[in-house]
Amino acid sequence: MTSYGRIEVAQRAGAEPFHLAGRPLGFDVLSFWRWAFSDLTGNALRGVVAEYLVAHALGVDADTVRAEWDAIDLRTKAGVAVEVKAAAYLQTWPQEEPSEIKFTIAPTKGWNAGTNKSASHIVRWADVYVFAVLHHEEQSTLDPLDLTQWTFYVLPRAVHPRVCRRSARSHRTTARHSHATAMCPRTLDLRCRLVPILRLGKARCNSDRT
After folding, report:
1. Which terminus of the chain has a lower count of CB atoms within 10 Å, N or C?
2. Taking CA 92 as the corner, what is the angle to CA 167 and CA 85, rounded to the nearest 5 degrees?
3. Could you tell me the CA-to-CA distances from 95 to 27, 90, 91, 137 in Å, in that order?
């Protein structure tokens, strides 16, 4: 029986051409990226953008290729498993009102991208959860590349049973303060773990454990 191992994927530069048996067709990977992945605001890519930003903030190697559907999103050089979840008030489709921010944090059966097998037990696989909120509420100036329009909340796994329900929500208050509402009581205390993204300068965390 033939066994198919995992295909190792290397980063592309963008200039690689589509071709017919080696004959270039006049369009390349970069043109495909522009066509398929220019909407960084939509649900399909917003979470990937958030993962990328968190990877840079934590010093995770950005020269690798993101693993699809793995049990965790990122692993730091120290071995800390990080799950990134993203949400936004504005969507690319028509809205009657800004979306409610909601993150699901229930334990799950994790799937291992390296083995193509799901775990037999249900747990929370990450050591740390990062809730990324694209909090900007003006369509005309919405820019997911502008880090001032993002807020990042950090929650260690150990805190979940004590302070969180099955899902964590942020209810909007006023447009001015909606993005500052914490999903769980202690998340704002732990935001300084992402100082490079938030540009807070020197800050002391109330907890520095995962």
Report:
1. N
2. 30
3. 35, 8, 7, 12
Q: What's the distance, CA 149 to chain centroid?
A: 15
Token pair of 73 as six digits: 């999103």
pTM, two decimals, is 0.74
One-letter identity of residue 110 = G
Candidate ranges 100-104, 161-165, 187-191, 194-198; pick with highest mean pLDDT? 100-104
Query: If you average pLDDT over every residue of the chain, what do you get?
Result: 75
Cβ atoms of 134 and 141 closer than 8 Å: no
